[in-house]
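for the recovery benchmark. tokens below, seq after
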């Protein structure tokens, strides 16, 4: 419980003490939006790295060479823990927002930082609004801002399993004409969810797999894109688990 309490205190202090920084970032954004994007991403990544260190998490990141440096991408990963965002955000080489649940739009101060790094808020119960969010995401990637989405739609509560991937999650990449980067996350629930409410030291592995160009896939694969990408992630997941956790 000690680590949990420390992390809660840290998060509250970070959000409160960062209010002046948010004001500075707002001013920077009026003059140089690109600089604001990069500085906000750096600050958020720094904050998440501090959380990882306080949690005592050992992080192994593989496959960074698979991330292209000449285009935005859509990162697609399995989702098991709240720490998935904490651990993946600092691993991204460029400004990257998340497609988050709509409820997070109401979280004070945190929502401002999320907006600063181009996070989108998806209402999965409203088809019309959900489509607007997907179209906005396509515009973001066209403009060079990468996005990360968890196509399972919610945190999976069972270790070593995958919920069905929603095909609609890939529309951002398809309409934005950017590659999909499958992102495998192994043992993130070992930090928190596996022994809630305690936070314990754990080893987590993240691997970025080779880009998938949707336009190069055959028609049948495109129709079942969620299953296709889920299969790729699942196969690599169990290989990594055997390699690093056996």
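predicted aa per position
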């Amino acid at each position: 419980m000690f680590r949990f309490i420390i992390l809660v205190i840290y998060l509250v202090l970070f959000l409160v003490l960062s209010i002046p920084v948010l004001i500075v970032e707002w001013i920077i954004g009026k003059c140089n939006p690109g600089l604001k994007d990069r500085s906000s991403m750096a600050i958020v990544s720094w904050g998440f790295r501090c959380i990882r260190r306080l949690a005592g998490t050992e992080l192994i990141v593989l496959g960074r060479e698979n991330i292209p440096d000449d285009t935005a991408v859509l990162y697609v990963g399995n989702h098991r823990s709240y720490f998935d965002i904490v651990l993946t955000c600092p691993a991204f080489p460029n400004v990257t927002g998340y497609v988050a649940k709509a409820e997070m739009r109401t979280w004070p101060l945190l929502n401002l930082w999320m907006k600063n790094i181009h996070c989108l808020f998806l209402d999965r119960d409203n088809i019309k609004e959900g489509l607007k969010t997907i179209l906005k995401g396509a515009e973001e990637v066209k403009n060079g801002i990468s996005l990360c989405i968890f196509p399972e739609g919610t945190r999976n509560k069972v270790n070593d399993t995958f919920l069905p991937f929603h095909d609609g999650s890939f529309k951002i990449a398809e309409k934005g004409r950017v590659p999909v980067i499958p992102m495998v996350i192994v043992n993130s629930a070992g930090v928190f969810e596996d022994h809630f409410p305690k936070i314990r030291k754990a080893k987590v592995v993240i691997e970025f797999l080779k880009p998938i160009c949707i336009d190069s896939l055959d028609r049948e694969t495109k129709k079942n894109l969620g299953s296709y990408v889920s299969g790729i992630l699942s196969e690599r997941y169990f290989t990594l688990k055997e390699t690093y956790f056996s």
